[in-house]
Amino acid sequence: MKRNIIQTRDGSTTIHIEDWDECYHSRFGAIQEAQHVFIKKGLSLFENKAVSILEIGFGTGLNAFVTFLEAQKWNQTINYVGVEAYPVSAEEAALMNYVAELDAENERHIFEKMHECRWEEKTSFGDNFYLTKRKQFFADIDDVEQFDLIYFDAFGYDVQPELWSTAIFQKMYEALKPKGVLVTYAARSVIKRSMIEAGFVVEKLEGAPGKREMFRAKKN
């Protein structure tokens, strides 16, 4: 499928898939969405704690990079696992303007290393951030009580509804530790039903800029 680099409304870039008319991030702002959904509504719940994170849809590496930057601010130890079935190439990642837009030029080597490091191997990024990229279909995830937090950033329901099924959310529920949390940009009723059927307690929160609502789901 043909992929183009486009600029979102906050100035940051994303990848647009022409056949689906679908983007890797919000057209209203890639960085704004990452910071609101995954940092403000997710990671901030674990301030000053060591955290294990599972990202569903590693994609451009934006969510991992903003999480790394937050970890440095709080000296927070993070074990980050990013799952992606169809990896973005290092060449495509190099076209993303996240480093400049986040005013993080001193950390450019970190963003580049996130895309250059080997898949299926745990890689250290300094003293407190560890990344493992797994080339894997979401349906094949079989972790049990390994994660405190899940960033659920799959392509939208309109183009891949199977990624938002009860079966997938059951895998997410199993992967979380007790009291674990899942955050996602989505807020459809059909998705909420699938989350509840999987065992989650679901709350609706204010969405990222340009989107009215989002979901946060908790495991009892």
Keyphrases for this structure?
220 residues, Rossmann fold
Topology, please?
Elements: E1 3-7, E2 13-17, E3 22-23, H1 30-40, E4 51-56, H2 62-74, E5 78-83, H3 90-93, H4 98-101, H5 108-116, E6 122-124, E7 129-134, E8 147-152, H6 166-175, E9 176-184, H7 189-198, E10 201-206, E11 213-218
Parallel strand pairs: 4-5, 4-8, 5-7, 8-9
Antiparallel strand pairs: 1-2, 2-3, 6-7, 9-11, 10-11
Helix pairs in contact: 1-2, 6-7
Secondary-structure content class: alpha/beta
CATH class (first level) name: Alpha Beta
For this structure, the quaternary state is single chain
Output the strand order for the largest sheet. Answer: 6-7-5-4-8-9-11-10
Proportion of helical residues: 25-40%
**Low-confidence parts:** none
Q: Quick one: biggest sheet?
A: 8 strands, mixed
The residue-averaged pLDDT reads: 97
The first-to-last residue Cα distance is 40 Å
Shape, please? globular
What is the C-alpha radius of gyration, as a whole number of Å?
16 Å
> What would CATH call the architecture?
3-Layer(aba) Sandwich
By CATH, the superfamily comes out as Vaccinia Virus protein VP39
Helix run count: 7
